């Protein structure tokens, strides 16, 4: 039997404050709210673009994201070009978001791909990158993947 070809569907993230997270993902990354539900302390929102679900947010957590526990390392979003990465970076700077590296960085020494690495309001590590255009950007981790240990 041949295994089916799988494609990543939506990504579900636990958050502490649904309203704050919805506002962040809409403003910072341009998502539309496709739906929402729940009540009290357990609410959720569906985010995406053009009717396609991409991220679900689940208000059911307290504390902050931890790189010390198994699970999500980081969530990455691809755009077509490095100029789009810089557009997102500009919005994130207006929102005073914390970045892992200063500006656009290459994924590794000599890599054409690269992007920005930052955290959401719950400390979840995020990336916006382009497959080309970062050839002249620094690679702060040398030959190690920039999206690795941050």
Automatic annotation (TrEMBL):
Residues 7-131 form the VOC domain. Keywords: Metal-binding. The keyword Lipid metabolism does not apply. One of its GO terms (molecular function) is lactoylglutathione lyase activity. It holds the Pfam family Glyoxalase. InterPro entries: Fosfomycin_Res_Enzymes, Glyas_Bleomycin-R_OHBP_Dase, Glyas_Fos-R_dOase_dom, Glyoxalase_1_CS, VOC_core. PROSITE patterns: GLYOXALASE_I_1, VOC. The keyword Phosphoprotein does not apply. This is VOC family protein. It comes from Nocardia terrae.
